[in-house]
């Protein structure tokens, strides 16, 4: 049974404290007044951030087994399929919440961001098109 504490470690929950500020700064920079729905944007961003963290650990699980065996997946505290499910669920949730907050345009922007996160985490790490 996966514990909530292990899932929080998987998504690096404390690191997400920086995410809402970035989102709210973007709203302020837009020059448009915020609304009750605007308050959902940090939730959407946090979902996408956490999805990227879970997906990264899933993608790097073999490397982490050697270099970071204490992490949730290699230590056996979170099964790889659970981590992938968390990443997928948070991605869908993040895009959906962005859609609720900002309509189709918000969902589209969040969808592009989600695609970039998945491409980064699953793409080649080395070589001319690698991200490492």
Overview of this protein structure:
With 132 residues, this protein is mainly alpha-helical. It has one domain (4-122). The chain is built from five helices and no strands. Helix 2 packs across helix 3 and helix 3 (41-59) packs across helix 5 (80-122). It is globular and about 50 Å long. The termini are far apart. 31% of the residues are buried. The model has no long low-confidence stretch (mean pLDDT 92).
Secondary structure layout:
Blueprint: H1 4-10, H2 19-30, H3 41-59, H4 61-67, H5 80-122
Helix pairs in contact: 2-3, 3-5
Q: How many domain regions?
A: 1
Distance between the termini: 33 Å
Order of helices and strands: HHHHH
Helix content: 55-70%
- Sum up the overall morphology in one term: globular
Structural classification: mainly alpha
Low-confidence stretches: none
Largest sheet: none
Radius of gyration: 16 Å
SS strand fraction: under 5%
Total count of strands? 0
**What is the helix tally?**
5
Please state the average pLDDT score: 92
Defining traits:
mainly alpha, single chain, 5 helices, 132 residues
Short structural description:
This protein has 132 residues and is mainly α. 67% of the residues lie in helices and 0% in strands. It contains 5 helices and no strands.
